[in-house]
Amino acid sequence: MVISMKKLFIPCIYLKKGMAVKSMTDASVISLDPAQLAKTYSQNNADEILVFDLSVGDAQHDEAIDVIKHICRESEVPVIGAGHIERMEDVKKLLYAGCTRACLDYEKQSNIDLTKEVSEKFGKEKILAAFRNPSVITENQKLLDSYVSAALLTEPSALLKSVTEINMPFIASLADISLDKALEYLGVHSVLGISGDFVTQNSSNISSLKHLCFENGIEVNTYENCMPWDRLRTNSDGMVPVVTQDYQTGEVLMLAYMTKEAYEMTLQTGRMTYYSRSRGELWVKGETSGHYQYVKSLTADCDMDTLLAKVSQVGAACHTGNHSCFFNEIMKKEYDDENPLTIFNSVYQVILDRKEHPKEGSYTNYLFDKGLDKILKKVGEEATEIVIAAKNPNPEEIKYEISDLLYHLMVLMAQKGVTWEEITKELANR
């Protein structure tokens, strides 16, 4: 059966005392660095990550929120926040930490009662509802239809029997089941995707699982080959050169070559695989160093004889330890870099440097010395100046005032530990 909706693979992180533990009921530590674990999951082709906060008490909860912030920062895919939701403020904390959705526990009447309020505040698309018993869905169907985007079924044993009666997309949380049974769940039309122990335990093989789904007519988010190798124009050695670029910064990292086998392996695994001309063999980038390259896109040029790969680079691309292989400067003419994010980051780094290495007479250090209230006062003043400038006919004035506001906002960001990467990620999520 061909499924029209692309299915999601969502591994879980169970967060307890700042560490990732095995499950809700097993506190065995599996990672001391949950943020790095999230990054690994996302690089292994997960579609989203589900984080359960298992903290007890508000103090532990606040510590967990700080860890979730790091998880959201490191993950390259959306993060769903769940656990320890008692009031509107808890949903707000998860979403402000960077989670794209918050999950209400419908085993708690207090969470059911929160649904309308948090949905109207943050939007229906930001809210999931978790169930152990599908009958609870039927009892709250009207509420769910109006205020919840999807459900998470944590005990899906009855799912296949009842799902046809329930008009709502599901994420099925699966235990350690067989592959055939997992495919059966994925074949159910209303199942949005799968999560739980099955996905977490197979997190390093998500690309293979997706390939198997694809072969079984189940649509997934995978590296689909839109261009067979035969359409590319190879060189005399039967290879195609590949220019590899950092997907976030646009920095060119390296130049290497692919054979047909390397090309097909890259598409299947999601990790850049080249052909080493010096060794005469396939070369999975990072296999020995750990500096893998995870594919974001692969594009052919107009002549179909060169590929451009945009990747998420782990560590350094170059064997010398440099981030990029292109570092031997031959000549350079001074020029203005007009890439907005590059400029913002450059100014922000100067502000951070002033914060860490104060300079006498620096206006930035004057603001930091005066503290948060002074910084906030300046942000407010500059915002007012923009309103006044916008009423005047000269556009140069408003450019000047917007620049002033952006500078003071960056001082505020540095004071509060917020980066441009986090801001742009939040904007992208909207």
User: Biggest sheet, strands in spatial order?
Assistant: 4-3-2-5-6-7-8-9-10-11-1-12
| Annotation field: number of helices | 16
* Low-pLDDT segments, ≥5 res: none
What's the shape? globular
Q: What integer value in Å does the Rg equal? A: 25 Å
* Total DSSP E strands: 18
The CATH architecture of the largest domain can be given as Alpha-Beta Barrel
Integer tally of domains: 3
What topology emerges from the helices and strands here?
Layout: E1 3-10, E2 12-16, E3 19-21, E4 29-31, H1 34-43, E5 49-53, H2 57-74, E6 79-82, H3 88-97, E7 101-105, H4 109-122, E8 127-131, H5 135-139, H6 141-147, E9 150-153, H7 159-162, E10 170-173, H8 179-186, E11 191-195, H9 197-201, H10 206-215, E12 218-220, E13 240-246, E14 252-258, H11 260-269, E15 273-276, E16 281-284, E17 293-300, E18 307-313, H12 340-356, H13 363-370, H14 372-390, H15 395-416, H16 420-429
Parallel strand pairs: 1-11, 1-12, 2-5, 5-6, 6-7, 7-8, 8-9, 9-10, 10-11, 13-18
Antiparallel strand pairs: 2-3, 3-4, 13-14, 15-16, 17-18
Helix pairs in contact: 1-2, 2-3, 4-6, 12-15, 14-15
How would you sum up this structure, described in words?
- It is a single chain.
- The chain has helices at 34-43, 57-74, 88-97, 109-122, 135-139, 141-147, 159-162, 179-186, 197-201, 206-215, 260-269, 340-356, 363-370, 372-390, 395-416, 420-429, and strands at 3-10, 12-16, 19-21, 29-31, 49-53, 79-82, 101-105, 127-131, 150-153, 170-173, 191-195, 218-220, 240-246, 252-258, 273-276, 281-284, 293-300, 307-313.
- It has 16 helices and 18 strands.
- The strands form 3 sheets. A 12-stranded mixed β-sheet has the order 4-3-2-5-6-7-8-9-10-11-1-12.
- It has 430 residues and is an alpha/beta fold.
- A hairpin with a 6-residue loop joins strand 17 and strand 18.
- The chain is globular.
- Helix 2 (57-74) runs parallel beside helix 3 (88-97) and helix 14 runs antiparallel to helix 15 (395-416).
- The chain folds into 3 domains: 3-220, Aldolase class I (TIM Barrel), CATH 3.20.20.70; 229-313, Roll (Ubiquitin-like (UB roll)); 340-429, Orthogonal Bundle (Helix Hairpins), CATH 1.10.287.1080.
